[in-house]
Amino acid sequence: MTTTSPADADREVVHAGRPRPRRGISLSDAGPPIALVVIFGVFAVLSPDFRTVSNVQNVLDAAAVLAVVTCGISFVLMMGSIDLSAPGIMGASAIAVALLVANNRNDNDFGLFGVAVAVLLGAALGCLSGLALVVLKVPSFMTTLGVSAVGLGVATLMFAGVQPNVTDPMLEGWAVERFLGLAHLTWIAVACVLVGALVQRYSRLGRYAFAIGGAEEVLGLSGVRVAPYKVAVFTMAGAFYGLAGVLVTSQLGAGLVQAGRGYDFSAITAAVVGGTLLSGGRGGILHSVVGVLLVTVLTNGLVQVGVSPYWQGGVQGLIVVAAVAAAVLPQRRRNQVTK
């Protein structure tokens, strides 16, 4: 009787089925970047103001918070799960950081420590989502929706009917001060993207996130305990959402319960448009970031050419439906049985 070491099992899982990210560039991988270039070019022709350097900087700054949220949600989507907890986690973290740094409600002035606590609060709520998923065996969209409600409840209790306005110069400076033409929070978002890409590419957690989405049964049969990795992914996603709540607080200069409103749908839209499948096993951080830029450029361009903001939500909805259909159609054709 032969035994398999954990290292050997890890190598077997990476090579089994679909879990390992593809190294080649396919048409589906190149599609979103090409679409981004085409949409940018169209709006640049239609609106001279769109192609200015200042507007490009505005687009990148506007994409910062969404990019951080999308980093978290991309790992969850790679596992084939759905995460709707971002609004609640962002709201709780936003109120927490506003009350922990210098503000008009109390005498706290914890600076970066307050930011760290807010991010840890997001990670704790994300961990709660993961534990509910693996322990209660409830579908992820239900558990995360419940955790979002918990986060909003915690935020409402901390809000206590009085809005905490931030007076901390460091946190306010993230949205105002610039480096190389971009706001500091944009550079924070770039750092989050790099960290997410490195985790996805070089860590066991990143490989197993793909494996869970692509061939969870193979992973389990290889002797790997899947549950801890699911909890770890949701915890990491919660930390990203918590940081995003801090960034929104920096932008607004105040803590708001609804700081994360709508970011869950926007992040899922961006990830799917960028090529990260809802069914898991394909895509990743860099794919999703392209989707973030595509959605942000589209929104900015529609405003520049005079399209009513009321149409923008509908346009986003049509885009995500088209992106999902385009991603699923080839799989349907491969799975068809010829009689």
From TrEMBL:
TM annotation in the entry: 30-47, 59-77, 84-104, 110-134, 141-159, 179-199, 231-254, 260-278, 285-303, 309-329
One Pfam family in the UniProt entry: BPD_transp_2
Keywords: Cell membrane, Membrane, Transmembrane, Transmembrane helix
Domain of life where this protein originates: Bacteria
Subcellular location, record wording: Cell membrane
Protein name, as recorded: Ribose transport system permease protein
Region (Disordered): 1-26
UniProt topology in membrane: Multi-pass membrane protein
Principal subcellular localisation of the protein: membrane
